[in-house]
Amino acid sequence: xxxxxxxxxxxxxxxxxxxxxxxxxxxxxxxxxxxxxxxxxxxxxxxxxxxxxxxxxxxxxxxxxxxxxxxxxxxxxxxxxxxxxxxxxxxxxxxxxxxxxxxxxxxxxxxxxxxxxxxxxxxxxxxxxxxxxxxxxxxxxxxxxxxxxxxxxxxxxxxxxxxxxxxxxxxxxxxxxxxxxxxxxxxxxxxxxxxxxxxxxxxxxxxxxxxxxxxxxxxxxxxxxxxxxxxxxxxxxxxxxxxxxxx
Length: 247
Hints:
- By secondary structure, this protein is of the alpha+beta class.
- The protein is built from 7 helices and 8 strands, in the order αααβααββββαβββα.
- It has helices at 2-29, 36-47, 50-67, 87-112, 114-140, 176-179, 228-246; strands at residues 77-79, 143-145, 149-154, 158-163, 167-172, 185-188, 198-209, 215-223.
- The strands form 2 sheets. The protein has a 4-stranded antiparallel β-sheet with strand order 1-2-3-4, with helices on one face.
- A hairpin with a 3-residue loop joins strand 3 (149-154) and strand 4 (158-163).
- It is globular.
- The N and C termini lie far apart (75 Å).
């Protein structure tokens, strides 16, 4: 029986090594076709089922922004979206509450179940690391505007690429509270209690990949930026330029 278990473990280990080698080879074959995370995403999406690859990409992304240095500058006009909301101060307050709660609840749970107390600590440590990583991603991944598309990234949480030609109108975000529960709405806001600056109505629905790795139909985008006037004028210019090209 023991020899069978060892044989099974060797087979599983060999399979894992083979899969890792194959993933590494596919990654190297991509060359300089994108950033590290973009290439990792392409390799995993090709090699694994979508829900599995989506989960792995999110975990890798979290640790990448937690440990990596500054990201290289990307092409396009960039717009930050976290400064005006005071997200840094909110994050510091939230982390302080988590750390105080963790310490107090750890000693309380430890008297009842040491295993449960350590599980609680591990989950809270993971949560703290995620929040720090997400904030670093927010700083390093601004909203990007190019001649062809508006690329909206909300830290490491979610992102969407909106072709400029698909934007019909740019309005104020005053109707956000009534529409934020609509599944066809993309919410580019750090806190859903804040009112977005702009509502982008699309000519036709576009698709994004949701947290479960499944395509989701988007008909409207709400977005907040720190420099709203520059964003508004730049976006209108891109839209006008796109219309001129189509003519």
